Amino acid sequence: MRGPLDRLIGFLPRGHTLPPEVWRRRHRLLTWVAVGHVPGLVLFGVLRGRSLGESTLFVAPIAVAAAVAMWRQPAPNVRASAVAIGLLWASATLVAFWNGEIEAHFHYFIVVSALAMYEAWFPYLLAFAFVAVDHGVLGQIAPRFVYSHAAGQRQPWLWAGVHALFIAALGAINVVSWRLNEDARASSAAAEERLRLSFESAPTGMALVAEDGTILSANRALLALSGHDEEELVGRPLDTLRPYDDRSGDPWPRRDLGEIERRFIRKDGTSGWALWRHALMPGTDETPAFWVTHCIDITERRTAEEAVAWQAGHDALTGLLSREKFVEQLGAALERRAEQPGRVAVLFIDLDNFKVVNDSLGHGAGDRLLDAVAERLRAIVRPEDTLARFGGDEFTVLMHDVRNERHALHIAERVAMRHQAVERLDLEVGLRDVVARGELELRYQPQVALDGEELRGVEALLRWRHPKLGVIGPDRFISLAEQTGLIVPIGEWVLEEACRRLVAWNAPELRIAVNISPYQLASSAGLADAVEAALERSGLDAGRLCLEITETALLVEDAGMMATLAKLKRLGVRLAIDDFGVGHASLAHLRTLMPIHTLKIDRLFVAGMVRDRKDDAIVAGVIRLAHSLGLDVVAEGVETAEQALRLRGHGCQLAQGYHFGRPLHAEDLRELLDAEPRAEAA
Predict the structure, then answer these.
(1) 631, 599 in Cβ contact below 8 A?
(2) 611: which residues sit within 8 A by CB, 6+ positions away?
(3) 114 three-state secondary structure
(4) pLDDT tens digits along 192-247
(5) In terms of DSSP bridges, do strands 343-350 and 394-402 run parallel, antiparallel, or are they unpaired?
(6) Contact yes or no for 83/69 (Cβ under 8 A)
(7) Max Cα-Cα span within the chain
């Protein structure tokens, strides 16, 4: 069991528990109290009949102690002790100037209580020691400076003990108050710690958000949900956790919003659903108001609900609309047409002899055939039309905005054109080994400088020497290659061939541009490796290879695409945005892709810039935008000297098109390069 002494020691305050800011505030106050005593006591000494020099000499230690207290170099204990000595010396000086009058001794009581504000043992016990020594020793040496009555002057140590008893009583009261303060702070700190742990350990995502929507802190659940580190979230708007398309610009959170289900975007670019709740905490004099935001992940529920809703309206095999959903949309379309101009038409498609496929090859083959037919129909119908599986081997198409019967028949003929399907099948079969058979080749279109028409680069354009169809352009087979995944080996061949040819030409100032398919960029994890391999095998410097990416490909927020772009940037290859102006890329997309090097103006605007002021203004604006971002500009499809002159006037650096030269075979471009020095010499 603990004895009385142990219990007493256990009751005593620990000391040094003040928060640093509170300690500094109290120390500043007590220091200025000590400073205020300096002129006050000098004036009091003079009024009590002492000379100015004597009064100043008595008060000088107080000024020295205050100066030490103001000095930030010493430890806090030293600075607090300096304040204690200064104030206690002020008490002794006041008693001495007042010739030991009992009223002057009350100053000690005030000082001792004031020093308790430090809640630290050393300066506090220093006060008791000072009182005992001052009343005893000084009372023995110069009793009239300490006691005004004869008894005190005759027996200074006795009266020092009497004073010590009063000071001890006051000290006991101060110690009790001090201990209660420590207990209150400890209780408050424990409550804050429990609140912090509750916040950090909450199973749901939580964040403290400023009134302007800036995240102040986030708990572990929200960090895990979003995939971000705390440093990445703190300081950014809460609204940035929503997908870009869901942002409306309105403040979030806001008072009238209440509970709401919204999507959120993770660090890896994937999205989910969450139930958001916000509670506004009122501010105080010292802290502003803030939001407490709760985020509950409901992705699984929403996914399940969407799956159920999708299954209710779609065919499980083909993914097309179901018969019921088609009839519903047909009825809605007919109701709209009763109030709006225009017509609708229904195309009914039945597969002949489908039963033979099922009976001879089995239902598995029949299902695969139905799925393939659905894919073909998707590729043929217009985006605004509605395609459905009506049942069995029957499909229906709801055609909107049909002008007349001839228009409807024209659309129906597109669906039934058998020779297109045959050609597609022939192309798909031929593409499978096209690289191995050596049927691919590159043509090279010159890119010239508009200020002097010197050859600065070439764009590699793919051609297929088809054994039946002859030489065909990429517009007839690239989309098919993307759908089948064959674009990957074809793209690797293009990179290898382009890099090899450029090195073989031995033209150090020449650059080569290669088009990159959106499928390669988003789906081929090995694109960057293929580029690196082509550069290493050919020995081509990375800065001479430019990869052209269409503007529309950049509108897709895809984590794989962004990772591939980052790897390509690290390799040092140049990046260009092709067909700029025909998509809807924003400056935010450009900033995400930086550093890109080149913008290519689409031939559509170049063709119209001479006769259409709007196209001319668009071209001029794109050039100014590119220059402001430090980018080069290449104009495509330049076919006349007037277009070239207009582009040069707008500050465009490079151009390509039939005005400068058609796409050339590698041998023809070799001859062109060999002829350039002779032309200069002539």
Answers:
(1) yes
(2) none
(3) helix
(4) 778 777 788 888 888 988 888 889 899 888 888 888 998 888 988 888 888 877 77
(5) antiparallel
(6) yes
(7) 135
Place of tokens 């508009």: 450
Partners of 278 in the β-ladder:
293
Cβ-based neighbour number of residue 127 at 10 Å? 25
pTM for this model (two decimals): 0.44
Residue 524 pLDDT class (50, 70, 90 cuts): low
* Per-residue tokens: 449: 């400088």
Residue linked to tokens 């079969």: 429
User: Across the strands, what pairs with 206?
Assistant: 294
Pairing mode, if any, of strands 260-265 and 654-655? unpaired
Whether 443 has a pLDDT exceeding 60, the answer reads yes
Helix, strand, coil abundance in the chain, percent, nearest 5: 60, 15, 25
Contact in structure between 446 and 455 (CB atoms under 8 Å): yes
Joined tokens for residue 29? 């106050």
Assess contact for 602 and 579: CB atoms under 8 A: yes
The pair of three-digit structure tokens given for residue 242, joined into one six-digit string: 């929503």
465: tokens are: 């020497």
φ, ψ at 301 (rounded to 5°): -65, -45
Q: How far apart are CA 548 and CA 578, in angstroms?
A: 6
C-beta of residue 269 within 8 angstroms of C-beta of residue 227: no
The dihedral sign for the CA sequence 446, 451, 453, 455:
negative
C-beta separation of 229 from 211 below 8 A: no
What is the rounded distance in angstroms from the CA atom of residue 499 to the CA atom of residue 442? 11
List strand residue ranges (DSSP E) for 70-213, in order: 205-210
Condensed to tens digits (0 to 9), the pLDDT of residues 564-609 reads 888 888 999 999 988 776 555 555 566 665 568 899 998 888 998 9
**Could you tell me which of 523, 568, 525, 561 has the C-alpha nearest to residue 547?**
568
Tokens of 355: 């039963």
Provide CB contacts within 8 A for 672, sequence distance 6+: 446, 455, 661, 664
Half-sphere exposure of 637 (CA within 13 A, CB side): 13
User: What tens digit of pLDDT does each residue of 469-497 get?
Assistant: 899 999 889 988 888 888 999 999 999 99
Could you tell me the two tokens for 173?
A: 């009261």
Q: Residue 512: helix, strand or coil by DSSP?
A: strand
Give the separation between CA 407 and CA 342, rounded to whole angstroms.
12
Is the Cβ–Cβ distance between 87 and 115 less than 8 Å?
Answer: yes
E strand segments, 225-305: 260-265, 271-281, 290-297
Determine the Cα–Cα distance for residues 653 and 153; give it in Å rounded to an integer.
104
Q: The tokens 């170049």 sit on which residue? A: 606
Tell me the HSE value of 281 on the side-chain side, using a 13 A CA sphere.
Answer: 11
Half-sphere exposure of 620 toward its Cβ, with a 13 Å CA cutoff?
12
What is the C-alpha separation between 523 and 525, in angstroms, rounded? 6
Element spanning 305, H or E: helix 299-313
Kindly tell me the burial class for residue 229, based on how many C-beta atoms sit within 10 Å of its own C-beta (0-12, 13-18, 19 or more). Answer: exposed
d(CA 313, CA 582): 35
Closest Cα partner for 64 from 41, 97, 31, 40? 31
CA dihedral 460, 482, 590, 546 (to 10 degrees): -20
CA proximity to 126, closest of 158, 186, 160, 86: 86
Report CA 651 to chain centroid distance, whole Å: 35
DSSP 214: B
